[in-house]
Automatic annotation (TrEMBL):
Entry binding sites for ATP: E31, N35, D76, M81, S96, G97, T165, R327
Keyword Disulfide bond listed: no
UniProt keyword annotations, A-Z: ATP-binding, Chaperone, Cytoplasm, Nucleotide-binding, Stress response
PROSITE patterns referenced in this protein's UniProt entry, alphabetically: HSP90 (PS00298)
Family annotation (SMART domains): HATPase_c
Chain ranges of the Histidine kinase/HSP90-like ATPase domain: 24-175
Protein name: Chaperone protein HtpG
C-alpha cells in the first residue's frame, strides 16, 4: 500500500477560478469587501482582549474607482498582514484565516469568511491583483503582493504608513463593465448595503451653481445597523414600515411584519412582511433577501424556504446559512432545512397572535391575506394544521367566520337529506346575483370564493372536512343545491318534454354546448335557468391554474345545462302553442314512428332470451335497419320541431332571459332581445 498527497497546481486552478469559482462573476466585489470587513472585525476583537492597544480610529472601508486606469481599490484599516501571513493566507489557496482566527479566540465577532476562497474571486474579473498591506503588529513594514493570475507572484517593500490593506484590482478587458461607476454603485447597493463596517464610495454631493459638486464628506453606501439586528423591544411599528419602504420604495404598505430573533438551536434574525398580493402569485416572488452576517447571499429563496413563503417580502439573516451561491447546496444544507421549518412555525404563530389579539384588524386585512393563506395551506401540510384555526371564510354579506364557526352557522339549514353539510359559494357576486338571491331567499348562506386559488382550495376543504360538499350557487336549480325531499309533480308528460327539447335548444348560442333538462320547479321560479356542472367547471378552473393532470379538462369546451321549468305557465304556453300549431304534422310523423318502434320492440323481445353469439347476422342486420329507419323518422320530427321553435318568439324570449341573467347575451343577440321585448310589451 502506498500513501501520498493529491497534487493541485496553480497552473490548473487559476483557469478554474476565473471561470467557475462563483456562478456569477459580479460576486467578486462582495467577496473582497467581506475580507476587508473581516480584517476590521478582527482588529476590534483583538482590541477587546487587549492584544491591540492602539487607537482604532476611523474604520471606514473605502472603495475607489479609477475609470481611466480601469482599477478598483478596496482599502481597510484592519489588522493588515505580515509577509508570513501573506504566504499563509494568500499563497495557500482555500486556507481560511477567518476560521483560524475564530478557533484561536473562540469568537466570530461578526467575521464572515470561512473557506479562504473569497479573495481569489478577484481573478474572475482582473488581469492583475495587487495587495498593499501594513500589519498592526509592532515593527511591521508595508508590503506589496502582486499576481497576474499565473503561478508566479512577487512580494516587495511598499509605502503605506497606516495599518490595514489595499486590494487593487486591474480589471480585465473582457470584464470592462466593472470599471464603470454606475455598475460599482449597483453592486455595492446589492451586496454591501448592510455590511457591519461603514463603506465609503465617493463623496456626497451638493447642488451648486446649477450642477452637483462633490463635498468633503464621504458617501457612506451602507447601514451597518439594520433594524433586523436590533431588539424588537426597541422598535416601533413605524420603524418596520420605514424599513419596508427602504427595501421596496415603490410598494404599498405591508399588511403585517414578523421580527425573527432566534439564538437557539441556531442563529437567525430577520424581518418578514406580508405584502398586498392582489391575487398575483408569480410577480411577487424573489422578494426575500437572504443574508449571512449582513452579507447579501441571494434573493432567490425558492426551494430554500417553503414555496408559499416565497410570497413574503423582507430579510432573513443567519450565520448558519453558508455564503454559497449554489442553491442546490443551500437546499441540502441541514441548517437551512431547520431554519425553513422554524420560519414556517413563526409565520403561523404571528398570524394566530394577530387573529387572537386583534381580530377586527385581521378581518380588515383578510382579503389581501387570503391568497397567501390558501397557498400555504395547499402546499404545506404543517402550515395547514396550524392555519385552520384562524383561516376565515367570507360570505356575500361581508361577514367573516372561522371554519368551525361557519359549520355551526349553516348546519341548521344547509344539511342535505344524506346528512352532508353543503357549503354554497359564488365566484362572482355580480354575475351570479340571481342565484345568490334565490339561495338566500331559502335561508341559505353563500360564501365568496372569487380568488385565484379557490378552485384548488375548495377541493382541499372537501377532503379535510368530514361529510361536506362545496357547491357553486349556479351549478343547479336552487331546489337541487341542497336536496332535502322529493320535488313537486311535473305538469308535462315525458312525450311533451321530448317535443319541447328541440323547441328550446334551437335558441341556445351555437358555439356553446347546451343540454336541455326539465325540472319540476315551482311556478314562481324562472321559466328557464342556466346552470353549469360543478365537477366540470371546477376541473376547468383548476386546469387554468395549472393543476397537475388537469390539462385534459382545460381543453374541453364550456358546457351548460338549459334547465326548463316544467311547471311554469310560460313553458306550458309554449307546449300548448307547439301542440296546436304542429298537431297535424306531429300526428303524421308519430303515426310513422309508432309502427317502426313496435316492430323494433317485437324483434328485440324475441332476442332477449338469446345470447349475442346465438343471434344470426340476418337478425342483427334487421335490427340495425329498423333502428336506422327509426332514427331517420325521429330526426325528421326534431327538424320539424326546431323549425317551429325558431319561429316561436315566446320560447326565444324566455331562453334569452336566462342567457341575460348569466351575462351570456351580448352584441347582436342582445340588440334583438331588446327590440323583441319592446314589441312583445306593445302587444
Amino acid at each position: 500500500m502506498a500513501n501520498g498527497k493529491i497534487g493541485v497546481t496553480t497552473e490548473n486552478i487559476f483557469p478554474i477560478i476565473k471561470k467557475f469559482l462563483y456562478s456569477d462573476h459580479e460576486i467578486f466585489l462582495r467577496e473582497v469587501i467581506s475580507n476587508a470587513v473581516d480584517a476590521t472585525q478582527k482588529l476590534k476583537a483583538l482590541a477587546s482582549v487587549n492584544e491591540f492597544t492602539g487607537e482604532l480610529g476611523d474604520l471606514t472601508i473605502r472603495i475607489a474607482l479609477d475609470e481611466t486606469a480601469k482599477t478598483i481599490t478596496i482599502s481597510d484599516s484592519g489588522i493588515g498582514m505580515t509577509e508570513e501571513e501573506i504566504e499563509k493566507y494568500i499563497n495557500q489557496i482555500a486556507f481560511s484565516g477567518a476560521e483560524e482566527f475564530m478557533a484561536k479566540y473562540k469568537t466570530d465577532n461578526g467575521i464572515i469568511g470561512h473557506f479562504g476562497l473569497g479573495f481569489y474571486s478577484a481573478f474572475m474579473v482582473s488581469k492583475k491583483v495587487e495587495i498593499v498591506t501594513h500589519s498592526f503588529k509592532e515593527g511591521a513594514t508595508a508590503l506589496r503582493w502582486s499576481c497576474d493570475g499565473s503561478p508566479d507572484y512577487t512580494i516587495e517593500p511598499a509605502e503605506r504608513e497606516a495599518r490595514g490593506t489595499d486590494i487593487i484590482l486591474h480589471i480585465d478587458d473582457d470584464s470592462i463593465e466593472f470599471a464603470e461607476k454606475t455598475r460599482i454603485e449597483g453592486l455595492l447597493k446589492k451586496y454591501c448595503r448592510y455590511l457591519t463596517i461603514p463603506i465609503a464610495f465617493g463623496k456626497e454631493q451638493d447642488w451648486k451653481d446649477g450642477k452637483y459638486e462633490d463635498t468633503d464628506k464621504d458617501q457612506i453606501i451602507n447601514n451597518p445597523n439594520p433594524i433586523w439586528s436590533l431588539k424588537p423591544a426597541d422598535l416601533k411599528e413605524e420603524d418596520y414600515m420605514e424599513f419596508y419602504h427602504e427595501l421596496y420604495p415603490m410598494a404599498e404598505d405591508a399588511l403585517f411584519s414578523i421580527h425573527l430573533n432566534v439564538d437557539y438551536p441556531f442563529n437567525l434574525t430577520g424581518i418578514l412582511y406580508f405584502p398586498k398580493l392582489k391575487n398575483n402569485l408569480e410577480v411577487q416572488k424573489n422578494r426575500i433577501q437572504l443574508y449571512c452576517r449582513q452579507v447579501y447571499v441571494t434573493d432567490n429563496v425558492e426551494g430554500i424556504v417553503p414555496e408559499f413563503l416565497t410570497l413574503l417580502h423582507g430579510v432573513i439573516d443567519s450565520p448558519d446559512i453558508p455564503l454559497n451561491v449554489s442553491r442546490s447546496y443551500l437546499q441540502s444544507d441541514s441548517n437551512v432545512k431547520k431554519i425553513s421549518s422554524h420560519i414556517t412555525k413563526k409565520v403561523a404563530d404571528r398570524l394566530q397572535e394577530i387573529f387572537k389579539n386583534d381580530r377586527p384588524q385581521f378581518e380588515q386585512k383578510w382579503d389581501d391575506l387570503k391568497i397567501f393563506m390558501e397557498y400555504g395551506m395547499l402546499s404545506d401540510e404543517k402550515f395547514y394544521e396550524r392555519a385552520e384555526k384562524f383561516f376565515l371564510f367570507k360570505n356575500t354579506d361581508g361577514k367573516y367566520f372561522t371554519i368551525e364557526e361557519y359549520a355551526t352557522l349553516i348546519k341548521p339549514t344547509q344539511e342535505d337529506k344524506n346528512k352532508k353539510l353543503v357549503y354554497l359559494y359564488t365566484t362572482n357576486r355580480e354575475q351570479q346575483f340571481t342565484y345568490i338571491e334565490k339561495a338566500q331567499n331559502k335561508g341559505y348562506d353563500v360564501l365568496m370564493m372569487d380568488g385565484q386559488l379557490d378552485a384548488h382550495f375548495v377541493n382541499q376543504m372537501e377532503s379535510k372536512l368530514p361529510d361536506a360538499r362545496f357547491v357553486r350557487v349556479d351549478s343547479d336549480v336552487v331546489e337541487r343545491l341542497i336536496p332535502k325531499e322529493d320535488l313537486a309533480e311535473t305538469k308535462l308528460t315525458k312525450e311533451q318534454q321530448e317535443e319541447l327539447r328541440p323547441v328550446f335548444v334551437c335558441h341556445a348560442p351555437e358555439k356553446t354546448n347546451f343540454t336541455v333538462m326539465f325540472e319540476n320547479l315551482s311556478e314562481t321560479d324562472a321559466p328557464v335557468l342556466i346552470t353549469q356542472s360543478e365537477f366540470m367547471r371546477r376541473m376547468k378552473d383548476m386546469a387554468q391554474m395549472g393543476g397537475g393532470g388537469m390539462n385534459f379538462y382545460g381543453e374541453l369546451p364550456d358546457s351548460y345545462n338549459l334547465v326548463v321549468n316544467a311547471n311554469h305557465p310560460l313553458v306550458l304556453k309554449v307546449i300548448g302553442e307547439t301542440e296546436t300549431a304542429m298537431k297535424a304534422d306531429l300526428d303524421k310523423v308519430n303515426g310513422e314512428i309508432a309502427p317502426v318502434e313496435a316492430s323494433l320492440n317485437e324483434v328485440k323481445d324475441a332476442q332477449k332470451s338469446l345470447k349475442p353469439d346465438d343471434i344470426s347476422q340476418a337478425d342483427k342486420d334487421k335490427v340495425a335497419e329498423i333502428e336506422k329507419q327509426l332514427s331517420t323518422l325521429k330526426d325528421k320530427k326534431t327538424a320539424m320541431l326546431s323549425a317551429f321553435g325558431k319561429k316561436n318568439q315566446l320560447a326565444k324570449q324566455i331562453v334569452d332571459l336566462a342567457l341575460l341573467a348569466n351575462n351570456m347575451l351580448n352584441g347582436e343577440a342582445l340588440a334583438k332581445f331588446v327590440k323583441r321585448s319592446v314589441e312583445m310589451i306593445k302587444k
